[in-house]
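Proteins fold reproducibly. Next comes a concrete instance:

***
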Amino acid sequence: MKKRILITFGDSFTHGLQEEIDKCLEYSIGSHLSEWLGFDRYINFSLPCWGNETVWKEFIKKNPRETFRDYDVHCIFIASYFVRLTVPVDGSYATYTPNDNHPIMKEWLIENQTPTDALNEYSIQTLKEILHTFNDWNWKWVLGFNNTIDKRIFIKTFPKFNKQMLIPDTFSKGIYHGAPMEYHCKKTDHLNKEGYHYVANDIKDWILHSHKNWMGNGIPLKEDINFDYIKDNEINLTNRTPL
């Protein structure tokens, strides 16, 4: 029987960013879920400021189908903000949104199209490609969204999307947004460790109800995917919707 691996994808929230920068992996939702659901291995493939396309491009560079061919792979993809455009810059990445008024935004527009509409459309097609690839590889997956705005746009585009694969919002404005103040991290405007624990527990209960075959009895080996992308003192400059 193959060993079971959990891989989480996302941005700074799924990365586990909070007061203790060096404990993102420990406090991330995937760390909790990998323990509670008994996985044998966990990889946190998330990083602050990442857009969905960047997450996917970097993952593909790892030759994942071959790398994880001996595993029963389970993926939790929590989509970053649709209005993020992450592009290669000097061997690293830079993230822009329509509010930045950067010239690169004009390259994405067609006649009578706003930057937000262009990025929404592009993000949706990126997610579609990712999920189709997971299916092609026979990987198990579920999809979630940082905030309800992007979730509504996605569902409106794909009204027949299988809702059983869609992680319910934990809070009023999304998986991470709309949390009570007691779960806010004062230093980085993210969730604190208690907030991530709460989100992870909510997702765990949903998985045990809707995807019982995700449960196992392993003890996970955990690892973070680290890239030289953003410095700790720049964390507050990430473009995101306020909690």
About this structure: The domain at 3-229 is CATH 3.40.50.1110 (Rossmann fold). Residues 52 and 222 are 22 Å apart (CA to CA). The chain has a mean pLDDT of 86.
